[in-house]
Amino acid sequence: MTTLGKTAGGLYWMSRHLERSENTARMIEVGQRIALTRSSDDDEWGSILQAAATHAGYVAKHGEVTRDLALDWMLRDPDNPSSVLSVVKAARDNARVVRTALTREVWEAVNEAWMTLCAAMRRKVHDRDLQDVLALIRQRAAFVRGAIHGTMLRNDIYDFCRLGMFNERADCTARILDVKYFVLLPSATAVGSRLDDVQWETILRSVSGVGAFQMRYGQQLRPREIAEFIIHDRAMPRSLAFCAHKLEENLGYLAMDYGTRLPSHEIAEKLNQRLLGRSIDTIFENGLHEFLMEVQHCLAHLSQQIEIDYRFYR
Which of 156, 177, 209, 289 gives the lowest tally of CB atoms within 10 Å of its CB? Predict the structure, then answer.
């Protein structure tokens, strides 16, 4: 199997795994909030596991979905390769491999994230501690991002870190949006109801977008405008358009560094121009789910192509 070169792969997957830890915390917060609007709490957590693409692994181990087991599976189960502790450990392992490419501050931030989260989740996380643990996960991921942004040269090492982060972030944003109508909404009769509005607001909160949305559109939260904001707003750090633009931008820097354009650059352009260039009306008319599946497929293809294009990188 073709993989990224040792250094590029370590940088790419270090950043991608750390981003996934925060995204998992965000998915859990979505579950916590939307469960309040549903009659069956356990059904809600089955939906969240599907959105996080970990449902099959959970069922293989535990069978019936319960809230407590789902939370433990997503936070700390070593049999779940996407659990928070699993991905933070993977990030630390990758950081150790490429330690000479990192600044001291970045390595220390990654290492401290692992040690801090291990201590916080040494035992099963109880309800009284859950919000603090989720905040700690987001905080530690932010510390690493801050160290990368504040201490690393803007060179190819930085570019590979950013590619991993924005590919993972875009994928999570697409999953959070996709779960809205096809998993979380109980029935078509709820479309346009108060329940529908609450769920759209929850989706917006899950990407830390309420304040920014209100600056753009005012106090009233309308579903069409929320979707447009999360998909198209290039100033919103977790929107699909923002992430896709950064992917194309950092691939462009690599093209300048190495003096050549590769297939991954074309895929990033397709994501920006052909997919995210569609209007929100066109997206809704053709199906939001179908659009988001296209985006996720394109992101997966891009990740695979980056591994092929830069397999010889150091």
Answer: 289
